[in-house]
Each structure stands twice: as C-alpha cells, then as structure tokens.
Structure prediction request, 414 residues.
Amino acid sequence: MSTAAARRLRIADFTYALPDERIARYPLVDRSSAKLLQYKDGAISEHVFRDLPNLLPKGTLLIGNQTRVIHARLQFTLETGKPLEVFCLEPLQPVDYAQSLSSAEPVVWKCLVGGNRRWKSGFLQQTFVHNGRELTLIVERRRHDAESFAITFGWEYTTPLSFGEVLEAVGIVPLPPYLNRAAEADDRQRYQTVFAQQEGSVAAPTAGLHFTPEVLQALEAKGVEFAPITLHVGAGTFKPVTAETLEGHVMHREYYSVTDEFIRRMDKQLSKNKPIVCIGTTSLRCLETLFYEGASIAQGDVWVAEEDQWVATRRRFERVTAWSAFNTLVQYLDATGEPGISGYTRLLLTPESELRVADGLITNFHQPQSTLLLLVAAILREDWRRVYDYALAHDFRFLSYGDSSLLWRSGART
Prediction:
C-alpha cells in the first residue's frame, strides 16, 4: 500500500474492449431476473439476482444507498430557436440538499450549461403545469468557473411549491450519456431503487436497481439486515480518467450522510465480526470514508474527507481496526450529541488501497478507464480482468441497466 504507487498507476492498464451491443440500453422487465456473477475465493460462478439471499451468509449487514435521483436535466429553447440545457449538479444556496429541494423560495445551484455561448441574455424562462395550473420557471445565469455556472432558479406560484416539485414537473430523468438515448416515461420509475428516499442524486446508484420488495423480504427471512446510508451521486461518477497516470486525476466530490443509528449498527456488527456487504460503489465509498473519519479522531488527527483523495493509501491508519474506528465514531456522537455524520468525500479507491470495512460488494459492470473500475480492482486486484473477461464471454449486460456481480474480497468474513 503506497500513495506514490497509486499516483503512478496507469489508467491504460484498466481498460478493456466493450462492444456497443453489450451496453444495456434498457432495463429488464423484472429487476431481479438480471444475471449475477459471484467472485469468491478466486472462483467465478453464475446466478440470477433473485438468488442473492442464498449467497449471503446469515447475519450479513447489507448497506444500501437510499439517495433518490432528481430530474436534474432542464431543457430550454432560446429566442433564436436553438436548444439549451441546464444540468443541476449540487445546491449552493441553501447548500443543504434537503433545505434547497424543499425551499419554496428562489435557490442557487451549481450547474452545467450545454450551449452556453448561445445564451446571450441573463435570463431564461419556461412554462410548466403543476396540478393543473400553468406556472413559469425563471433561471438566471450568474458567476461561473472553468466547468460550471451558478444558476438562480425562481418560479411563480399562488400556493407554496418546492424546488423539488418544480424539478419533478419540468426536469428530465438524467440518464447516463453512454445510454445514448432520450429518457422515456418508464425511466422515471425504473431509474430509481425501491429503497430510494432522500432526493439529491443526478445519477442512480445502479447496483440497487436489481432489488425488489420480494428480494428484500427474502433477505430479511434469511437473517440478512439492511442499513441505509445516503450518498448523493454526482455527474463526476461518469467522468473518465483522462490523465496518463492517476497523479493527474482530481477525484470528484460527493455528499454523504449517515445517522447515529447507522453508526451504532456498524459498531455492533463489527464487534461481532460479522460480514458487511455494500450495495454499489457509492455505499462502499461512504463506508470507507467513515472508517477514515473514525480513525483520524482515534489518532487525534484532523482529516478532511473533501480534501484528501489519497487517504486510503496512507500508512498512518494501518493499525486502526474497522471496529475501533466505528467505536470511536460512537463515542464522538455521544460526546457531541450530533444526530449523525455528514460531509463531502473525494475518496479514491484503487488496487493500492486496502478496503478496511466492507467484505463484499454488489455492483454492475463498469466503464473502461473509470474510477469505478479502479474501485473494483481494489477488491479483486489482478483478477478484475478475469472477471470482466468472463462476463464478456458469457453474455452479461454492462453498465447502468446491465447485470450484476457479487464480489468478495480476499479474507472476507463469510
């Protein structure tokens, strides 16, 4: 484990040929009928997703991301007749996701603007219908940096209407660009997990898309518990690594939030040395971030998750156990009275990282040369290529609406 070695990793070593026809453009009618590849102790086996309860040991704690996708893509027509798109990324005023989406007053969001050079005036507007009433959304372009703009959103209303409701009425489901198709009516429901609760993501935590109420009930009957976290997935999750080595890549940040109850459930699970499996890379990223939060407090260090993307390769936390890190977080919450822990993370996980908390990961098959594939390699090491070669050779469907995998790290508590 070395930061220097992580910085030297060549992204060209984490690529593979992904034929266009292997990208799943649409989900299966039955979410749980997707194929499921299991990797365990070096062996690969093939299953159907609804078989998951048979593959997880009794007593496993399953961590799921309860974020809900917002209709982040807004389309306008300029006076010239040219199209323009505003893509909402994250709130600026108020900065809190829940407050911003529930606000009935104007809000400011960080946004991408497609076709900005055609936007000559400072304002755009669009009429929309909500509960049978025609209303007007007004957007104002403000300051900008190299990649994004601060955009003010205001709307006319006679009764209070939240920004979240405005997006629901006006916005479009932000399907990943690699699907190369427009969002359709079914995507409004199919691009959400069945346990989605907290609005804020601009991309779905797609590993959770295979779950159904029936699968969750079967897991509960097996003795597998479910614990939710929130990590709002940002557009940066689709950003490819374009630098030759990871040293030149700036990891995107994402907001996470967990409750006091969640931290205590983790403390209990770890104290009993029972398995922990994450549903998706976002849940795993949140869980490993929390480890470093607790480990830094335990050692009297100050570590800011938003500032250090390399922490998972630093040696100063090697002797801190997962249980001691989460037990420290329990003590911290007891001392401060805080209701939970939240913040932003830039955590980058690579084959030079050691996973400190999670035993297994349920995840889809990811793009070549992506940070998501690097995270998979953090679990599988050199075997990531063997797993992907198997999936390609056995007709697995790839990316957001594709098939699933259950990947166990070496030495997992199973």
